[in-house]
Amino acid sequence: MSVTFLGRSSGRNAVRGEALVSSTPITLLGGIDRRTGRIISPGSEADGKYVSGRVFCLPMASGSSVGSYHLYGAARNSVSPAGIVTMSPDLITISGAVLSGIPIVTSVPVYLIRDGDMLELDEARCTVRLIDIDAWSEGGRVTTPLSLGEGGSLTGSGRTYTAERRDDRVILHLAG
Amino acid sequence: MELLVAVGDMVGAERLVRVRSAHISGISYKTIGDAGIEFLGDFLADTRVRVPTSINPAGIDIERWRELGISPEFASRQRLILDAFRSIGALPLCTCTPYLAGHAPRTGEHVAWGESSATAYVNSVLGARTNRESAITSLMAALTGYTVYSGLHVRDNRAPTHRVRFTGPPLDEVDASALGFLVGSWVGDGVPYFEGVRVDLDGAKSVCAALGASGAVAMCHIDALTPEHTWARRRLSGLRTFTLTSRDVQAFREERYSGVVPDLVALGCPHLSENELARVVKTMERLFGDARPVGDIWLTTSRAVARRRNDLVARAERYARVVCDTCMVVAPLEPMYRSVGVNSAKAFMYLGRDDFFTGDVVLDSMEGLLRRLVP
User: Fold this and answer.
1) What is the spatial distance between Cα B372 and Cα B365, in angstroms, rounded to a whole number?
2) What letter does residue A111 receive in the DSSP assignment?
3) Which of A77, A150, B130, B360 is the most exposed place for a label (fewest CB within 10 A)?
4) Which A-chain residues 49-88 have CB contacts (< 8 A) with chain B?
């Protein structure tokens, strides 16, 4: 079964890859080693891991506005993520990704994605599809995506997502 | 313009907004590297800024980089970047505090400012409206005169999202930055409202810098200081509240305490204001008298402040170097120094990262750091 998040995007590229998740914001300046793609962010579960080839999922960029250049530098060194998924649409991550040609979809409930999940990111459709998902643990309570009825909603980090059923698929729309 | 429109789509902006000024970050060769130079070389050819635009600190003091021990190779790469920005008509202000150097937005104006500390200061203290523009989007805004109309350009989004109640005495610069750092790491891209925080404009500068470093905060409200605080105050009910005392701030500092006597004490993150420069000078005169400090001291400030207060600079230079156009974070300190003392949680965070500096970093108050250098 799959779940599709409908977020925001502006590009035309699609990519498939394994999620690398940080549940806390990342300061891209000095937080991604431009030579190796290694995350340097103590306090994040992604610390010490490599973004290269992964779909990097983070709530937003924190810290320096110069972080965009670190993403760009990593891309020039061929160690950038294959795609980026964020929750808050911050200008630092977005402009860095667009400049670097890294596919990006924002306004996605990143906290529902687990490290290692297989994702399909499609900029033209503004979607992130989570493949082979059985159940989520949300706030300690296990929710099956399919248990969300039409019009059901999920709330996290101040954002509400409403569910739409299409056959055996669930599409989550950012409300508002 | 295409990139701006793409960014606008992604943040859900309905339109672009004309801006009155811009401030561009991503100027130091240390932070943008060769990839940045190549990008700017292509991108800035045959363009001009459309609005008054200042730029962030570079990696060198333009007039005295040799004396600081910076290599000619680094300086020549840095000059390429500075020449590119000069050619597009950016103001020759390399500072993170352009608002203290004659380039300050007015209350209510829409502007596009990069540099996370300046963004927060512009919204929170000056009452102008900017998002946390990135190095790239601030450049696009400077060249087009427009940015995306979203986020903090829209009044409703300037309402507080969290309430922070602080009890304790007035905060010095390092405590103010510790408070900002703690709150920034909790509220993400929220808009915290501070109650009970007694700071002057310099203290607010420290709070703003730390909020923008540990978090993604582009604006806060400080009781009795933020131009919109009365409007914001009516929007506090039901917000999540954090309660903090001076003990929390002390604990933050103690966790980062080290007794190291640093090779370099670097004060001025963000760049020193005139008042701060005056305070440092008086403190050095009191502590050192006719003696020489046992380590180097950098006082980083904007060239505008240094020129305006050349009397203070002359007094300061008995003990320290007044360094302009750059700072301890974006200058290449590594070959010259093995340990650095700072009074800013922001500088402490970045210098603690191997990409910036691999030596020891000490966080203490201005006076606490200078005392360590008394012979």
Assistant:
1) 11
2) G
3) A150
4) 59-70, 72-73, 76-77, 88
Query: What pLDDT, on the 0 to 100 scale, is given for residue A112?
Result: 81
Listed in sequence order, the residues at least 6 apart from B106 whose beta carbon sits closer than 8 Å to its beta carbon are B20, B126, B128
Instruction: Output helix, strand, coil percentages for chain A, rounded to the nearest 5.
Output: 15, 40, 50
Residue A163, both tokens: 């569910």
Q: Which of B9, B26, B135 sits opposite A8 (nearest CB)?
A: B9
Active site residue A107: no
Q: Is residue B362 predicted with pLDDT exceeding 90?
A: yes
Can you tell me the ipTM of this complex? Answer: 0.95
Tell me the mean pLDDT in the region A73-88. 96
Strands (E), B210-329: 221-222, 240-245, 264-272, 296-301, 321-324
Q: Which SS3 state, helix, strand or coil, does residue B84 take?
A: helix
What pTM was estimated for this model as a whole?
A: 0.93
Question: Is cis: bond before A89, omega within 30 of 0?
Answer: no
Mean per-residue pLDDT, B339-367:
95
Of the residues A64, A90, A107, A173, the best mutation for testing chain B's interface (the one with the most B CB atoms within 10 Å of its CB) is A64
